[in-house]
Amino acid sequence: MTEYFSLSDCDVIGFDLDHTLCRYHLKETSRLIYESFTRYLVEHKDYDKDLLTLTPATWDFCFKGLVVDLEDGNLVKLAEDGTVLRATHGTNNLRTEEIIKHYGPKREWNHFNSLNTTFTRSTKYYFYDNYFDLPGALLCGRVVDMLRKRGSEVNSDFWKDMVAAIDHNYNTSAFKEDAGWYFPSVKRDPGRYLQPCSESVKTWLRSMKSAGKVLLLITSSHSDYCRLICDQILGKDWEELFDIIITNALKPGFFSLVPQQRPFRTLVNDVEESEGLPSLDKPGWYSQGNWPHLHQLLKTMTGNPEPKVVYFGDSMRSDMFPASMFGKWETVMIVEEMEGEGVPRSDAAETNEAQVEPQEKKGKFEDQGMKAPSAPSEQWGSYFVDTHKTPGGDEESQKLTWCCHSIHKYSTMAIPSVESIADLPLDYKFPRFSPNKPCTTGYYPRPPDSLLKKCQSQSS
Prior knowledge:
This protein has 460 residues and is α/β, with parallel strands linked by helices.
């Protein structure tokens, strides 16, 4: 494998949609998602109305990469080796001695091997790795606080209600039926939540197509929501940009190689045909599906028996891990947390956000002091690196977080947004992640501050 990665070497360029091609106004969207989940619990499950009341400071708890331990209501931040770096019970910090009481002197989280090797869901824990469910981590912590206040036992029963709240708002028919609170709100005012793609991104997509690349869109969003997003961010002629569009892809299952693969289905007026397709024989818009059938079509379209595919995504569980492990694709991870650690936003992204976000609305949240979910947290620290104290508490070492380690292991490279590379030539050579290189290699346009500091302290 070469030290560098270039889009010009790829036959196929694929994209996830949400938080990859489509950037959301994270503060607005996070508030909506939190309220959508919470209103379900309050109105349908008789949870305390106090859960609906948030102060701006409360959002500091909202941090990507946390794992909730469903058996005891703890939320944990893990190091690359499964060590518990920080933990809370509900939203309350656990002291070092409390962490040791829960996880032993080595602070080992006992489900780490299962999560680290498969990324599959479990009845024992839940991994918060994308912005669509991230406000649920804050709600989860507050529900545990509520149960404690009531004197109720904290066990995994509360999680059934959380799952029901997610399903009520996000199930595939919710958009069409105006069910829940999330989809009706976005449909009413899409510009409040969705950031249009910059002209440079649209030009970049067209230039790749003109260069003979096959362009692919794979999203777990249903076709009706996908259309609303793309109309808003790319314009009404957006379908012309892509050769193949796959909605309701049900990732990561889309990439699994088990014999019971979900067949591709055609759509009529956003309704899936009941009969699945035995294979995929031409480009177009499809629903569900599986990677092996797509791979066969890509061979035909590119004339290459082993087409080289790169896939851009924002989720380790749904995008990076399965595309890299099963599809053997190159993967580019969108890591918005880089922008919270000194990595500059692209000029196009800055201009674009300024154009679409009215100043009075922008000021409202800045004045309130609400932390963007992608920014570092006072309570949880950096997404990439954290300090680990020895049991005696007298020695400190800097450890990569498990999320950061996973990015290096399953991604070819990491960028804060597609805007950050849209103005570069297609043959630009990006340094790729490599176990033989410093941990700062693989980030474009530059590594996050915490990783730079870690490397500097090791070399000094």
